[in-house]
Design brief:
This protein is mainly alpha-helical. The protein contains one helix and no strands.
Length: 107
């Protein structure tokens, strides 16, 4: 009978130790999962920030490209206007020259 009581006491002690270890293991798993979730959240935040920075950089480049295109259009317009003015001056000079020829030949 004593042997049985000792065996029951040992079994109860082992059971208690086992439950304590299982509780510690459970707590350790929960802590690890929490740390992993925190790390994932931090990683997601970094990805969001990186993506936002990438978009902002893309917008900035698009703005610069648009400004350059506008400047190019303005320069092309200025050159076209200048070319038209020069063409008009040349046309006027040809008219004056023809008028002078006509006047010279009739005189």
């Amino acid at each position: 009978k004593q042997w049985y009581q000792r065996r029951v006491a040992i079994t109860a002690g082992e059971k208690k130790k086992k439950e304590e270890l299982e509780g510690e293991m459970r707590a350790a798993r929960i802590k690890l999962m929490d740390e992993m979730m925190k790390a994932l959240e931090e990683q997601e935040e970094m990805l969001r920030k990186t993506e936002m920075m990438r978009r902002e950089e893309e917008w900035r480049k698009n703005d610069e490209l648009f400004k350059l295109q506008e400047l190019r259009k303005q320069e092309e317009q200025r050159r076209a206007d200048e070319h038209r003015k020069l063409e008009e001056l040349a046309k006027q000079k040809r008219k004056k020259y023809r008028l002078r020829l006509c006047v010279d030949t009739t005189a």
